[in-house]
Every structure is written in structure tokens, then in C-alpha cells.
Amino acid sequence: MNGSELIRIVDAIHRDKGIDPELIYQSIEQALSQATKKALNLDEAPAVTIDRATGEISAIDRGIPIDASLLGRIAYQQARQVFVQKLREAESDSVYNEFAHKKGDIVSASVVRYDGPHLLCRIGDKAEATMLKTEQVPGENYRLGERLRAYVTEVEKRGTRIRIFISRAHEDFVRRLFELEVPEIADGTVVIKKIAREPGYRTKLTVASTNTRVDCLGACVGVRGSRIRNVVDELNGENVDIVRWSDVPKDLIRHALKPAEVVEVILQEPEKRATVYVIKDELSQAIGKGGRNVRLASKLAGWEIDIYELGADNQPPAPPAPAAPPADAPAAESPAPPAEAPAPSGNNAESLN
């Protein structure tokens, strides 16, 4: 192998694999050094260098030059396997270094093929990512060759193998979309406090402003809804509710149940359970299809929520009876009967357990 041919090989590998030429030269030098030591039965590996300008190979064993023709035969016969291994390691390191810092970010990917229920995508020029079935959005159909955006959940390195996992169902996919669309979120003026999501159906997120002059809801929605519309389009029409954060549990629960209007919220602090009353016309909206709205509101607020129709015929569950007083305690005066409480509709109450 002459010098010009070696330079062409290094350049071809660099263009094809995207590996730094210097790493390739170093891999070849290490491979030749190890192969020369084995072939000539030397005590130590000789120092092998490649002239970066001419491609000429030289080796020195304890100050004595080794015949260049011998190096050529070794390069073809024994150094190949070592070089291939070094090349794989260099390629693996190159991919890992490129994508390790993209964990928690959004990347553009191209659908390559299905591996059972899982989706394999190409990201960048030389990396492959896996979208597990659980990280795919129900209702989305992915066609071969289709380009899509996804959230990088994990970048793993095991030996020379790099595994990259992406998701479109992750809650933080929505978080990063808003960070990209809303400058006030990116710079910390508006903070996303919590996200609750059922991918493909609905997402609720609470937001708060660190600047009293900035309206957190208006910033997220944008002029004429431009910002939130871009997020919804990327989510293929998934409903997105932006909720104002509150430190007051009653207010937070009211906001979380939007778009339904709440009449009253009664809290049972020890059980972290809230009883919510709405008028009849708001009941189905408060519960949501399949209980989705109240389920997401419960996750968002951190309270279990029971919803009842105001003024229905049925009565809500009675609270636990108080403990009986000691036998020798004086009899207490009977309290006046409580006012009639609003009651749930027989089949319309939604309870989260």
C-alpha cells in the first residue's frame, strides 16, 4: 500500500463515516504497532507513525528502523482486524459524542423500518434511534421515509454499540415544544410547573409567571393563538389546556378542570380528596370522555377528585361518623340539622382511586 492510496482510504472513511481523520490515522498506527509486535515477536510494540502529508509509514523498534516493505505485508495481513475494531470504536465514540448532549432535546428523525412493534429511525447522518411501542402516540401512523420530530429520552453506550431512544408520547416532548415556541418559557420568565398527558388525546399543563408584568397564559397562547397552534399542529391536533398555577388547592383544582366551570370545591385535607360540584350542563365536560378531563386534572393538581352534579336527587356519600363520647361525658346539645347539600347524579359522579 503506497502513501497516496492510504491517504485516499482515510479520506473516504472520513467522508463515509464522519470520523475525524486524525482518529483514523491514530487507529491505523495503533493497529500496525500491535500487528508488527506480534508478527516480529518483539518484546515491545514499536512506534509507528504515518506522515499526514505523504501517507508514508515508518516504524522504529528501540531506535532501529523497521523495513517499510515488511510493514506493508503486515498492514494487509495482520493489522486489518485490529484496525476494523479501532475504527468501530472511533465511529461509536463519534456518534456518542454527537448525541449524548441531546438527551432531553428534540431531534428530527426519518422513519427507516419497523422492528416488531417498535419503530427504527435515522437521526443525523450515521445514527439510528428506536421509538418503543410505548413511546408512540396512539392514532399516529408512521410511514417509511416520513420525517418527524421526537424527544430524546436516553443515549446509552455499551461497548461499541450506541442505543438512542426517542419518544413522541413523553410529557417532556410537550414541555420542549413550548420552550421552543415561547421565548418567555425559554428564558425563565414563564415556568411550566407540571404536565399531565394522555398522548394523542389531551394534555394539561400549569404555568406561572416570575414577572408580574407578564401574563403566563397570554405568553403561551401567543398573538391570535399562534404559539399554541404550532404546538397543537406538531401534536397532530391533540387538545392542549394551559392552566394558571395557584398555591391555593381550591383555585388550582378549579383551573385544572377547565374548560368546565366549577361551582364549589370542598377539600378533605387528610385524604387529599376534593369534592367538586358543577351544574348539570357542565357535568359531562368536567368529567370528559372516558373520565379523561377529571383524570388529568387530578394528576395536575395532585388531589383525587370526585365530581357531582349540583342539585341532583341523590345525596353524596356521607362523611365518616365522629367517635362516640365517653360514657361519663355530659350529653351534648343536638346540633341543628345541616342545610341540604348538593347531590351527585346517580351515574354521573367520577371518582379517581
Helix content: 25-40%
- Tally the structural domains: 4
So, the CATH homologous superfamily of the largest domain? NusA, N-terminal domain
| Contiguous uncertain segments of 5+ residues | 318-323, 329-353
**Structure summary, number of beta strands:** 15
What is the class of the largest domain in the CATH system? Alpha Beta
**Number of H- or I-type helical stretches:** 11
Largest sheet: 5 strands, mixed, barrel
**Looking at CATH, which topology of the largest domain would you report?**
N Utilization Substance Protein A, Chain:P, domain 4
Largest beta sheet: strand ordering: 4-5-6-8-7
* Beta-strand fraction estimate: 25-35%
Global Rg? 33 Å
The quaternary structure here is: single chain
The secondary-structure class comes to alpha+beta
Distance between the termini: 73 Å
Order of helices and strands: HHEEEHHEEEEEHHEEHHEHEEHHEE
CATH architecture of the largest domain: 2-Layer Sandwich
Average pLDDT for all residues: 84
Net shape: elongated
Description:
- There is one protein chain.
- The chain is α+β, with helices and mostly antiparallel strands and about 350 residues long.
- The protein folds into four domains: about 5-95, NusA, N-terminal domain (N Utilization Substance Protein A, Chain:P, domain 4, 2-Layer Sandwich), CATH 3.30.1480; about 105-165, Nucleic acid-binding proteins (OB fold (Dihydrolipoamide Acetyltransferase, E2P), Beta Barrel); about 170-245, 2-Layer Sandwich (GMP Synthetase, Chain A, domain 3), CATH 3.30.300.20; about 250-315 and about 340-353, 2-Layer Sandwich (GMP Synthetase, Chain A, domain 3), CATH 3.30.300.20.
- Helix content is about 35%, strand content about 25%.
- It has eleven helices and 15 strands.
- The chain has helices at about 5-15, 20-40, 70-75, 80-100, 170-180, 185, 215-220, 225-235, 250-255, 280-285, 290-300, and strands spanning about 45-50, 55-60, 65, 105-115, 120-125, 125-130, 145-160, 160-165, 190-200, 200-210, 240-245, 265-270, 275-280, 305-310, 350.
- The strands form four sheets. A five-stranded mixed barrel has the order 4-5-6-8-7. The protein has a four-stranded mixed beta sheet with strand order 12-13-14-15. Strands 1-2-3 form a three-stranded antiparallel beta sheet.
- A hairpin with a 2-residue loop joins strand 2 and strand 3 (about 65).
- It is elongated and about 100 Å long.
- It starts with a helix and ends with a strand.
- Mean pLDDT is about 85; it is low at about 320-325 and about 330-353.
